[in-house]
Write a structure and sequence with these properties.
By secondary structure, this protein is of the alpha+beta class. It contains six helices and eight strands; from the N terminus they run H-E-E-E-E-H-H-E-E-H-H-E-E-H. Strand 5 and strand 6 form a beta hairpin.
């Protein structure tokens, strides 16, 4: 489930123009969800009611399937996949209140469940960065002048010793 602030409409339009995109969303006040599906640069959309819990689900399939002109600028499939994988991991580390999954070639690569508690958040960070990162990090929780900083910092010699 993605909060509305994660995706901006212009980003969705750009992604939809080069993929097969499906978006299902339901507000807390609505009795049913709505699903919109688009495919390719024409972006002819199909709108229909759908059964879905409160929240939003965005599915992107066949990324770059219809972009022959762009193909000469794309790197190998593995390079493009690695970039997407990195972006999903960055989103997972910065949006603990969101469930994210990545599938590639009909295979589930990652499933990052919503992480509400500090333990669940630590588990997610460990899943992405490895247990050694967690073992060699310190929790940061500072509030000053109306600003709050939360996160994990790693012990500087950890990476120089292990790398």
């Amino acid at each position: 489930m993605l909060p509305a602030s994660v995706f901006v409409a212009r980003h969705l339009a750009s992604i939809a123009s080069v993929s097969r995109l499906s978006l299902i969303s339901r507000t807390p006040e609505a009795s049913e969800a709505w699903k919109v599906e688009t495919e390719g640069v024409d972006m002819d959309s199909k709108l229909s009611p759908a059964a879905h819990p409160v929240g939003t689900n965005v599915e992107v399939r066949d990324l770059f399937f219809n972009t022959p002109a762009r193909r000469k600028f794309l790197r190998t499939e593995q390079t493009e996949y690695k970039r997407i994988d990195d972006i999903v991991k960055q989103l997972a580390l910065s949006h603990f209140n969101t469930t994210l999954s990545l599938q590639h070639n009909q295979r589930q690569i990652h499933k990052f469940e919503k992480a509400s508690s500090p333990q669940e958040q630590q588990r997610r960070v460990s899943q992405i960065c490895g247990p050694a990162f967690i073992e060699n990090s310190v929790s940061i929780d500072i509030e000053q002048n109306g600003m709050k900083t939360l996160g994990l910092g790693f012990i500087t010699n950890f990476f120089s010793l292990s790398g």
